[in-house]
């Protein structure tokens, strides 16, 4: 029998976000039935980055085939602290090696800090070699339980000139990015099915999509 494991942080008013993004608001509407209006940035909470997020003229979320959002995924576990770099060796030692076309989900344990912004923002980040390897390997998506695969804002020498090397390397080569996953500790070291159908918005949107992320454990 298959077991479904939810990897999604619920969207909630005032939830953790990058400082540059507006606060999440959920405003009730007066009606005879319960209803509300959601105000949320496209890169808040659990979401997928489309190539258009980092590549001029890149593919937008609505242009990505639906088949990309139901793939086999493997989960690797990497233990690195604030300010530390996740190497390719870390990734390969932490779980099964993904096959071409599969998604790779990286468990660092940082989902435990999601409600504590200072701790959650100061996460580890990936060595650019990991991004180049993911491209060569033909990975479909790289997912993680962190804000970003790139260096945290407060660790950058100059945020104004920061080039987002991991984002740009992956997205310009059609490796989608999944940020702010949770519950990866429950499936560390496993291979299973990964489902995540993102919301799509037309221009000026399309740079990212919130979705319910679910891992299916079989057997």
Topology:
Elements: E1 3-6, E2 25-28, E3 36-39, E4 47-49, E5 70-77, E6 85-86, H1 88-93, E7 103-107, H2 117-121, E8 125-126, H3 128-137, E9 141-144, H4 165-171, E10 176-179, E11 191-195, E12 208-210, E13 214-217
Parallel strand pairs: 5-7, 6-8, 7-9, 9-10
Antiparallel strand pairs: 1-13, 2-3, 4-10, 4-12, 5-11, 11-13
Helix pairs in contact: 3-4
What brief labels describe this structure?
single chain; 219 residues; alpha/beta; Glucose Oxidase, domain 1; nine-stranded mixed beta sheet; two-stranded antiparallel sheet; 4 helices
Structural write-up:
The structure is a single chain. The protein is an alpha/beta fold and 219 residues long. The protein has one domain (3-217): Putative cyclase (Glucose Oxidase, domain 1). It has four helices and 13 strands. It has helices spanning 88-93, 117-121, 128-137, 165-171; strands at residues 3-6, 25-28, 36-39, 47-49, 70-77, 85-86, 103-107, 125-126, 141-144, 176-179, 191-195, 208-210, 214-217. The strands form three sheets. It has a nine-stranded mixed beta sheet with strand order 1-13-11-5-7-9-10-4-12. Strand 2 and strand 3 (36-39) form a beta hairpin. Helix 3 (128-137) runs parallel beside helix 4. The longest helix is centred in the middle third of the chain and has 10 residues, at 128-137. The model has no long low-confidence stretch (mean pLDDT 95).
Summarize the structure.
With 219 residues, this protein is of the alpha/beta class.
How would you sum up the global shape? globular
Question: Main β-sheet: number of strands, strand sense, barrel status?
Answer: 9 strands, mixed
Helix-strand sequence: EEEEEEHEHEHEHEEEE
Structurally, the number of domains stands at 1
Q: Give the CATH superfamily.
A: Putative cyclase
Low-confidence segments, given as residue ranges, are: none
Query: Helix tally?
Result: 4
- What topology, given as strand order, has the largest sheet? 1-13-11-5-7-9-10-4-12
In the CATH hierarchy, the third-tier topology is known as: Glucose Oxidase, domain 1
Based on the structure given, which CATH architecture is correct?
3-Layer(bba) Sandwich
Radius of gyration: 17 Å
Strand content: 15-25%
Which structural class should the secondary elements be placed in?
alpha/beta
Helix content percent band: 10-25%
Oligomeric organization of the protein chains: single chain
Tell me how many strands there are.
13
Broad CATH class? Alpha Beta
Whole-number mean pLDDT: 95
Report how far the terminal alpha carbons are from each other. Answer: 6 Å
């Amino acid at each position: 029998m298959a077991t479904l494991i939810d990897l999604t942080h619920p969207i909630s008013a005032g939830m953790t976000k990058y400082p540059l993004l507006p606060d999440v608001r959920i405003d009730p509407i007066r009606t005879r039935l319960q209803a509300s209006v959601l105000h949320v940035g496209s890169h808040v909470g659990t979401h997928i980055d489309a190539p258009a997020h980092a590549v001029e003229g890149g593919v937008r979320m609505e242009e990505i085939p639906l088949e990309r959002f139901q793939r086999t995924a493997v989960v690797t576990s990497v233990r690195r602290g604030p300010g530390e770099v996740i190497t390719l060796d870390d990734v390969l030692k932490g779980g099964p090696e993904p096959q071409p076309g599969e998604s790779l989900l990286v468990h660092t344990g940082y989902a435990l800090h999601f409600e504590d912004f200072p701790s959650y923002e100061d996460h580890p980040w990936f060595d650019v070699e990991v991004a180049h390897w993911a491209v060569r390997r033909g990975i479909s998506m790289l997912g993680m339980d962190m804000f970003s695969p790139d260096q945290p804002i407060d660790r950058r020498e100059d945020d104004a000139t920061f080039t987002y090397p991991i984002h740009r390397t992956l997205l310009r080569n059609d490796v989608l990015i999944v940020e702010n996953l949770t519950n990866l500790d429950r499936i560390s070291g496993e291979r299973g099915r990964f489902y995540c159908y993102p919301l799509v918005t037309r221009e000026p949107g399309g740079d990212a999509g919130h979705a319910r992320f679910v891992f299916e454990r079989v057997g």
